[in-house]
Write a structure and sequence with these properties.
The chain is mainly α. The chain is 73% helix and 0% strand. Helix 11 runs antiparallel to helix 14.
């Protein structure tokens, strides 16, 4: 008896976008990944943890709102940039074959105009943060733009994505405390190596298509030794986060939460299966719980 092959497409029709949005808005919602919010959560949750640590307590509501909108808008803009650069590749990849630009629901001109609107909306948030953080925001933009191109010439695009995705953690400190202590940088480095790990899981979903198209990723670099590389990056993340806790004088309960983070990451490693790309995708999404645990650790750490 043959086993039905799972559909790896990341566009799922008859969802809330199809049911509740006007047909003219649906392609733009999908272009901005509003139907797939996991990336926004993975951007926002570490940032919230940094806001808590920087404020040494519950962050100011308006600052939390600004950074939440920033995570949403920059992740959405980054997704649009990604689809613009990859429009000729996506049609050949099972996971991305139904995306708006690839499927012709949105033209290149329309996507560029939409990107301009997204970036202008994000730029408005600069008025609500301090000058130190504005300069960091300016540095972030080139990282967001070049990330999709990295898979053409390096096996480490996940490192660039990790730096960009978690940049808000640094900005959270500079805007809240007007300083960037070593502990904040350690937290960011931990998030960067964590993202290399979980985004490699994501890359294993596309590894066969990437090999055929000549695109590079950490999944292709690690190959059959992925479990060892993933274990290493996750271990380094825990090390950096532990070092950050010491440097920032976190409460001992912070380290209890870090043990839970380590257990969750270990479960991901135990569940990883090279022969089941759909499972790699599910494990990638499970990192939302890692982000939540980071927020809990930050809260416990400032008691």
């Amino acid at each position: 008896m043959s086993i039905e092959k799972p559909d790896l497409s990341d566009i799922h029709h008859n969802d809330w976008v199809d049911r509740h949005l006007h047909p003219s808005l649906q392609p733009y919602a999908r272009l901005a990944r509003l139907d797939r919010p996991v990336g926004t959560w993975l951007t926002l949750l570490p940032c919230i943890a940094a806001l808590i640590q920087a404020a040494h307590g519950i962050p100011d509501f308006w600052r939390l709102l600004v950074f939440s909108l920033g995570a949403l808008l920059m992740r959405s803009a980054g997704s649009t940039i990604n689809d613009i650069w990859d429009r000729d590749f996506d049609k050949h990849v099972e996971r991305t074959r139904f995306r708006p630009l690839t499927s012709g629901q949105v033209t290149l001109k329309q996507a560029v105009i939409f990107l301009f609107i997204q970036l202008m909306a994000a730029a408005l948030l600069l008025f609500f943060i301090n000058s130190y953080s504005r300069w960091l925001a300016v540095i972030l933009v080139p990282l967001v733009i070049i990330y999709p191109l990295c898979k053409r010439f390096t096996y480490w695009p996940q490192a660039v994505l990790g730096a960009a995705f978690n940049w808000g953690m640094l900005m959270a400190w500079t805007d809240t405390a007007n300083t960037l202590p070593c502990g904040a940088v350690y937290m960011w480095l931990g998030a960067l190596t964590w993202q290399i790990g979980y985004d490699t899981l994501y890359a294993y979903t596309d590894i066969k298509d990437d090999e055929r198209l000549g695109l590079r990723s950490t999944a292709r670099r690690f190959g059959n030794k992925g479990i060892y590389w993933l274990s290493g990056f996750y271990a380094v993340s825990i090390l950096f986060w532990g070092l950050a806790g010491i440097t920032l004088s976190m409460h001992w309960l912070y380290y209890v939460a870090m043990v839970l983070v380590a257990i969750h990451l270990f479960w991901q490693l135990k569940s990883f299966d090279l022969q089941r790309p759909e499972k790699s995708h599910a494990l990638f999404k499970a990192n939302i719980y890692t982000g939540l645990l980071l927020v809990i650790a930050a809260l416990l750490g400032v008691l």
